[in-house]
Design a protein that fits this description.
6-stranded antiparallel beta sheet, alpha+beta
Length: about 130
């Protein structure tokens, strides 16, 4: 898990570009979709979860954004194992449960079921 602080936010047609500053002085420009970028403000902490320094998901408070989103139901069962190391997998499951509770869903103990609920709710909120 890497922690970044949002230093600047610039809207684009897709969502927003965020200038992220790391603890070790590194800076990163990352594009985020509108549903995630609207909830992030300058000064917020954003966490990158992944495997071998490759970000697969981004977390800010109760919001979750996928860099690599599972496309089929067969991929949901192995999504956490393939895309996160052990500790980031635990953090991802926790962030997923918090994101579901923020959307008024009750999370279950099954990560696959939680991913399915989250992706469905994410699609519904994008099209409203």
């Amino acid at each position: 898990m890497k922690k970044y602080i949002v230093q600047n936010k610039k809207p684009n047609g897709y969502g927003s570009f965020l200038l992220l500053g790391g603890a070790d002085g590194e800076t990163l420009v990352q594009s985020f979709p509108r549903y995630f970028a609207n909830a992030v403000q300058v000064g917020d902490q954003v966490y990158a979860l992944g495997y071998h320094n490759i970000s697969r998901a981004w977390v800010c408070r109760d919001d979750l954004c996928f860099a690599v989103e599972p496309l089929m139901n067969q991929h949901l069962a192995s999504y956490v194992v393939k895309n996160f190391d052990f500790w980031d997998g635990i953090r991802f499951r926790y962030a997923l449960a918090r994101a579901l509770m923020a959307r008024d869903f009750r999370p279950s103990l099954s990560t696959t079921a939680n991913l399915h609920k989250f992706l469905q709710s994410q699609y519904l909120t994008k099209t409203r």
